Amino acid sequence: SQQGEEDPQALSIQEGENATMNCSYKTSINNLQWYRQNSGRGLVHLILIRSNEREKHSGRLRVTLDTSKKSSSLLITASRAADTASYFCATDVTGTYKYIFGTGTRLKVLA
Amino acid sequence: DTEVTQTPKHLVMGMTNKKSLKCEQHMGHRAMYWYKQKAKKPPELMFVYSYEKLSINESVPSRFSPECPNSSLLNLHLHALQPEDSALYLCASSQDRGQLYGYTFGSGTRLTVV
User: To probe the interface with A, which of B52, B53, B103 has the most A CB atoms within 10 Å?
Assistant: First the structure.
């Protein structure tokens, strides 16, 4: 299975702290995306990083990609209670319309 | 309009029922997707429509039947489902293969089969 593995599976932090979650995948990719899902509802696209990029920022989000290690990390700085959600990475299957989602990290930010 | 709208939000159906899930987008996206998600699991791809043609069927049982009547609409027809089919069904759309801006997801239909 190409499914990515994310760690940790669950993370609990205090408001204001930084949260880091990691994604590892198995096959070559063109790009990797991160999504957030609140309370089992729809997923929201956060950020996309291409295979030739090493780091990307969007607001309080920082994503890194290491294609040699087949891994990516998502850093959320100065976390807020509203960041409480599940976070998934998704990797493309080259040449197709298919994206495979990782196992997800459940983040809880305590006020 | 930057949304994907899914109806209904909740559905309870018996194993002998026939029902349909509906998905609509008006962003001009030419690819539309159905995903199934069980609790505390990642979404799993079911079907992909590209330019209104079925391009991927992930070996989904025939009791699930997708339909794309036009570029804005995607339906999922359900018949003779099993209790293990209870899940959150997510629709998504994208420009091309999603490699530029990713997917836009609807808020899902929570299906319970009794």
Answer: B103
DSSP letters along B1-41, please? ---EEEE-SEEEE-TT-EEEEEEEE-S---EEEEEEE-TTS
Nearest residue to A38 via CA among A86, A77, A90, A81? A86
The token duo for A26 is 């198995």
Instruction: Express each pLDDT in A44-74 by its tens digit.
Output: 999 999 999 999 999 999 999 999 999 999 9
Question: How far is Cα A65 from Cα B92, in angstroms, rounded to an integer?
Answer: 25
Q: Is B83 on the interface with A (CB under 8 A)?
A: no
Distance CA B77, CA B99 (A): 28
In sequence order, what DSSP letters do the residues of A22-74 get, joined into one string?
EEE-SS--SEEEEEEESTTS-EEEEEEEETT-SEEEETTEEEEEETTTTEEEE
Interface check B95 vs A, CB under 8 A = no
Task: Kindly list the residues from chain A whose CB atom is less than 8 angstroms away from the CB atom of residue B88.
Answer: 40
Q: Strand A19-24: give its sheet, edge to edge.
A: A5-7, A19-24, A71-76, A61-66, A55-58
Mean pLDDT of B40-69: 95
Q: Do B31 and A96 touch (CB under 8 A)?
A: no
Residue B7 forms contact with A (CB below 8 Å): no
Query: Taking 70 as the threshold, does the pLDDT of residue B13 lie above it?
Result: yes
